[in-house]
Every structure is written in structure tokens, then in C-alpha cells.
Amino acid sequence: MRIASDIRLAGIGSWLPEPVGTEEAVARGWYAEADREASGMRAVRIAGELPAPEMAVRAARAALRRSAAAGFAADDFGALLHCATYHQGPDGWSAPHYVLRHTLDRPVTAAQIGPGCLGMLAALELSAHRLAADPSKDAVLITSADNFSVPVVDRWNSSKLFLLADGGAAAVVARREGFARLLSVASASAPVLEEQHRAGEQLFPPGITVGRSLNFEERNAHLKRRWEQGGAAPAVHFGDVVADTVDRVLEEAGTGLEKVARICHTGYARRALHGIYLAPLDVEPSMGSWEFSRDVGHVGAADPFLALEHLWTGGELVPGDQVLLLAAGPGMEVACAVLEITAGCADGTAPHPPHGGTPKEDDR
């Protein structure tokens, strides 16, 4: 979808905990050395007992400080959209309203957005629609946060595609002013592939209610066994869906991949990053955010915005640069957006440089 009105990012923020090095994880017996070498990952961010909504609050406050410098106040906001890929707190409770209370503290709507790891890009698109439809408010706050430090999740071995990481990100989507202009946003799904994230598991009762772990490798193994026994594999290749959707969003933005300065993508491990994004788009890792994400891990829906903030605050993105935000999630679905940087960062360098950390025993 081409964005006809002037929609911008007026602020962006993040909060990331200390990193735990993958070499340390191998030494402690949490992670296999062969998997570490194949993944290319150097570290994963681990938050311990800090609740995910609190990380979202911290990220949102950083984004709001930046948007305030652009002239936005709490009364300018018409909504808060919060994204999560894992459980946020007590059943029957609203994490979005917790984030709202501790940030804007205004009587506006607050909602939780899916699906999964492309949630913030879905929220970006919804924010653009809302701002176009309702001229009474000039901004929407979008947030995302997850904490996988729970007994039923093995962040090191739940998937070969990524290492689950904790953290939060936020952005202010607005009219009038901002450091980046939204040119286009698009998404597409391949519903025939939805089984990949549930294979071998029953729908009811939900696995978490009976103590099942979050284990994508078990589900992949179930599918492979079925295909080896003669079951039909899906005819759709998800890389083709990614390439087609990126082509469309670039065309709608009036640009091409050769004009894009950087790609801010999901924090996949090396092999998954190549197979899902780099090879279908025929681009090199240096064009993406690999050197940043390999020291962070996969922070759910936050990944593209964490990378965007890192590159922008670090001076790697300057006015005139075009940026592609790209994420994929269960469904299977892909979402992307094209931004044009319109202002440099005036408040210092990237807030989360790679640094060492010591894991606790309960961080496994």
C-alpha cells in the first residue's frame, strides 16, 4: 500500500538487557558447539525476571522523549498498539493498558496486536490507517516486548532458526514531523503453511495450559517424518512470498532494491537469514542488520525497529537514505515497509553496543 498522506516516525526507542555470550552458553552446557558455529550468533539478550510490559514501558519512554523533541505531547496520541509473541502476565489482564498507564496515561484505546514476529509492522500499517482516517489525533504509540526466561522455554534449543531473546522496542507513528517518512507498507500470507507452527500438537487444550514447552524443532521433526512417509509437502516456497511482497512494497514506494541503503530484518540465525531473506532477495548480509542482530538474538516483533534505531542513532542511516523493514511470522506471513530517513539523530550514538555479560544459572 502506497502511503498517500504524510505519515512519519517521530520517535523510536528500545530497551535491551545484558547479553549472554554463546560461547558461555556452550561452556555451561546450554547450547551445542555445532549449533553455535552454524548459527553464527555471538550473544543473546536475557532479562531474567523483568516483566515484558516493563521493558515495553522503558522502550516507549525513550521513543516518547524523542517525539517530544519533534513537538508531540501525550494529548496528541489517539491510540497505543502493543505487540507480543509470548505471554505478558496474568491471564485475563491487559498488558497494553499497563504500558498505556505508565507512558501516555490518557483515556485512549490500547490493544494487543499480532501476528507473532511481524506484529510491529502490522501495528505500523494499522497506525497509518488510523491517522489517515481520524484527523483529531496526530500520533499513535506502538510497542513490543517479550521475556522468554520461563521454565517451559529453552531459548537455546527451541528452534534452529533463531535464539529467543528478551527486550522491548517502541515507535511513535505521527503526522507533521519525524525522522523518517513512511513511503509504503505491505504484507502477504501463505496460509497453506500455517501447519508448520502447530504440527504434532493438538489445538485444545492449549499446550501452555498443560505445561508443554515452546519447541519449534519438535514440530518441524513431526512434519519431516510425515513427508518421509509419503505425505505431500506444501507447493509454496516461503522465500517466493518474501520476494514478491518486497517487490510490491518497493514498487508502491516508487523505488527499487538497488536504491535501498539498508534492510532491518528479523533476528534470525545465519542459515535461516540466508534462506528466508538474503537468497530470495539476492542481497549480501552487509546490506541487512546481521552484525547487530547476531549480538542480540530474536526479540519477537521488535527486531526490525531495534535494528532501525541502532543504525539511525549510530549514524549509519542519514537523511535521504531509504530503508526496508522486513519481518515474517506464523501463518505464514511476511510484512515489510519502506521508509525514507529525513533527519539525523541528534542525541548521541547507538544505545546498545555489544558488550560482555555473565549469565545466571536460572538464565538457561
TrEMBL record:
Keywords: Acyltransferase, Cytoplasm, Transferase. Coiled coil: none annotated. It comes from the Bacteria. The keyword Acyltransferase applies. Residues 250-341 form the Beta-ketoacyl-[acyl-carrier-protein] synthase III C-terminal domain. Residues 116-186 form the Beta-ketoacyl-[acyl-carrier-protein] synthase III N-terminal domain. PANTHER family: 3-OXOACYL-[ACYL-CARRIER-PROTEIN] SYNTHASE 3 (PTHR34069), BETA-KETOACYL-[ACYL-CARRIER-PROTEIN] SYNTHASE III (PTHR34069:SF2). This is 3-oxoacyl-[acyl-carrier-protein] synthase III C-terminal domain-containing protein. It comes from Streptomyces salyersiae.
